[in-house]
Amino acid sequence: ADHVRSLNDSTNALVSFSTEDNPNPHGLLSSLTVAIKDNICTTALPTTCSSGMLHNFTSPFDATAVELLKAGGANIVGKANCDEFGMGSLNVNSVHGPVVNPYRTLNEELIPWAERERRSAGGSSGGSAAAVAAGMCDAALGTDTGGSVRLPASYCSITGLKPSYGLISRWGVVSFADSLDCVGVLAKSVDTVKTVFDSISSYDPKDPTAATPRIRGKAQASVEALVSALDANTSKPDLSALRIGIPQEYFPSELDITIVTAVRKVLERLMSLGAQLIPVSLPSTPYALSAYYVITSAEASSNLARYDGVQYGTRSPTLPGTDKSKPSNVYAHTRSAGFGVEVQKRILLGTYALTADAFDNYFLQAQRVRQLIKSDFDSAFRVPNAQLSSSPQNADGVDILLHPSAIRTAPPLDSDATSGLDPYLQDVMTVPASLAGLPALSVPAGSAADGWPVGISIVGQWGSDELVLRIGEIIQ
Ligand code: GLN
């Protein structure tokens, strides 16, 4: 525990530390230490969502994912820092302060922590990623609404899975944008990610959007043959059955060219193992980011309405001179004092998108774009989407898509890249899979010219998480 605390001094990855005894020391997960993102409810530790609004909130119940981890015997080490309510890409929007990326570039190995370049760990699950990368725990739970598990995994050189939407229960996960929110898993190896994912991915009647056993089974069955044909346990697996799509829209001009070089190396290796690489087009991709920010802000404005100092949230005293007996004064002051700038920005944007004047042009338009993105993916994949009752088999389709996880390496903290619209751009590669609810895994793929890590993302059809993980094992 002292070791973890001392690593925390340099990373700021954890915001509270567990002292609980393991209720099931002989469970399947009993050899694992796990950190939990601080927007996932736990009874033993506070759940602050990195917000002033919840700085002294402790949940009366555990999230289903936490319950399942505990039942499996996992050793919970603490709660992980994040962007406030999951809003951000760099883990700089947090009342607990920014998370520092623990990745050590080779030539920095001998430089003391205090003198190293301080770079972002990515966000919003930056604390989860940094805790794993620094060796403070074996695995961590994060949440991913638009990239918040994959981006920090990529920046910190670890593995991060955003599962298919609906596979892991959202019960006890503080909502940001519920139609996209997914619990994700971070660890150094794909194997550990899979162990944790397998123990928490199950149907939960408490989550109204949980995927039913029938639909899970249907999706799994459609990729079963391929999964068993791809043996990850040999050094030269035969990938001739595998069709990999390379989406041309995922190589935009903003993309660092040395990231392309790192990704190309992975592709060459997969090709040498027999995989077929097929260029594909997902034409609605350029509209994904705008649609994402409209939809998520609209959902957030509604989800965050409960924090008014009466139902939820720390009530702030009304300003001197204002009428305390007027509830609207209490609400307004509580929300201005309790929420950070980014959260307030999203609430305003989302509320606007839902007003009668803007609804058609913004919210509905964004929903239409979301539909187009989904159909782009459905026409690219070989297997049909198990969630749709009728969707044609596509013999020319691909089994998975591969693309860089991010357009750049981790930005330095305290630079211009952490403010303005720049952080929004970091998600340009990750939001399409989120809008479509698809499984996506980021695995390390070497480093860029600046010596910092690069990640490659594997995206599959809905419910093909096992296939995505198998390809991840082969790549890593
Ligand atoms: N960076 C994105 C945002 O700020 C994604 C956040 C997330 O996935 N939780 O909305």
Automatic annotation (TrEMBL):
Biological processes, Gene Ontology terms: glutaminyl-tRNAGln biosynthesis via transamidation; mitochondrial translation
GO cellular component: glutamyl-tRNA(Gln) amidotransferase complex; mitochondrion
Catalytic machinery residues: 37, 124, 148
Domain Amidase, chain residue ranges per copy: 24-469
Record GO terms (molecular function): ATP binding; glutaminyl-tRNA synthase (glutamine-hydrolyzing) activity
Catalytic activity: L-glutamyl-tRNA(Gln) + L-glutamine + ATP + H2O = L-glutaminyl-tRNA(Gln) + L-glutamate + ADP + phosphate + H(+)
Recorded superkingdom: Eukaryota
Keywords, in A-Z order: ATP-binding, Ligase, Mitochondrion, Nucleotide-binding, Protein biosynthesis
Localization annotation: Mitochondrion
Major site of localization recorded for this protein: mitochondrion
EC numbers: 6.3.5.7
The family this protein is said to belong to: Belongs to the amidase family. GatA subfamily.
Function of the molecule: Allows the formation of correctly charged Gln-tRNA(Gln) through the transamidation of misacylated Glu-tRNA(Gln) in the mitochondria. The reaction takes place in the presence of glutamine and ATP through an activated gamma-phospho-Glu-tRNA(Gln).
Assembly description: Subunit of the heterotrimeric GatCAB amidotransferase (AdT) complex, composed of A, B and C subunits.
The protein's name in its UniProt record: Glutamyl-tRNA(Gln) amidotransferase subunit A, mitochondrial
Parent-protein start and end of this portion: 37 to 512 of 562
